[in-house]
Design brief:
By secondary structure, the protein is mainly alpha-helical. It is built from 15 helices and no strands. The longest helix has 15 residues.
Amino acid sequence: MTSIDEFSVKEITVSRQSPGEERQAALCQIYAQVLERQPYGFERKQLAKSEAEFLRNKIGVKRFLRELGHSEVYLNEFYYNSSNPKFIELCFKHFIGRAPGGQTEMRHYCDILMRHGVKAMITALLDSEDYLRHFGCFTVPHAWSEESYPSPKTFLETDILLHELHGRRGWIVPTMTWHDLRLNCDGGSCGLPAAQTSGPTSATTPGLEALHQVLSTMGPQDLEKFASTLSAADRDKLRHLLMQPAH
């Protein structure tokens, strides 16, 4: 597997003293990181005011990131068609440069999203200690590599997430979920693995505990979306699995 280091980019820092060409380069890098592409022409019109203020040194990197994350450009691309867990995972990738650190962190931001809305959740990420420690107020977010991640699992899932092509596995099941459950979700349609579903099922089935943990973070609408990505046969297998207690 390719290491995270190979996905790291040259760190770009923009201050009040930065010349115009540096701010323009930073703008392109922000779009590459957050949108995973450069904006289309009609999207640029929606972002024109924020862009102009950023290029004229009226707002900094963090303020521009917040306005981009709150914009219809970002929400149309990543939020409206996604489940909450998938969207939160993508926000971590875009604004923090890593995968969520586990179900506790995922639940924390799911709670903010459900109680206070999508803009409050993005603001909370940008105000987080992790964001401040790695990027401060002036550095463009990027994938990073260091000796200490929240867990070895976070390191592995970050590496997988950074290599995931935009939309490759659909908009419902987070990368951390399909990896935990050993699901094959290429193309957005998931299939439960044979080793998990064939023969008698017990509480020791590989991935069963992860399945319960993951589904506990999903609301009714997200659960319906998740079920819709499975075949009828796999939905029956899923119901059977959920009848088993997790340890």
